[in-house]
From TrEMBL:
Protein name: Subunit ChlI of Mg-chelatase
SUPFAM superfamilies xref list: Ribosomal protein S5 domain 2-like
One matching Pfam family: ChlI
Source domain of life: Bacteria
Length: 90
């Protein structure tokens, strides 16, 4: 199932809308595409522990997360909540 959520990134003094698309399918790996830095790549581990602490479980299927537009560098931990919402709704 494909789910879209939205968040913002700050570039200088401008706020840019970032679309987060989450697809859960058959398989068992996690992928984040769309020019993420290491903090964003590690967010799935933080999300998994937060979901378990809240009584939810992380799907044991292939999760593909697309962060668009792809030409903007995504940095920091600000994407954790929209990613978690996208995973839960998928």
């Amino acid at each position: 199932m494909l789910t879209k959520t939205y968040t913002c990134a700050v570039s200088g003094v401008d706020a840019l809308t970032i679309t987060i698309e989450v697809h859960i399918g058959s398989g068992n790996k996690y992928h984040i595409v769309g020019l993420p830095d290491n903090a964003v790549k590690e967010s799935l581990k933080r999300i998994e522990s937060a979901l378990q602490s809240s009584g939810y479980r992380m799907p044991r299927q292939k999760i593909v997360v697309n962060l668009s537009p792809a030409d903007i560098r995504k940095e920091g931990t600000a994407y954790d909540l929209p990613l978690a919402i996208g995973i839960l709704t998928s």
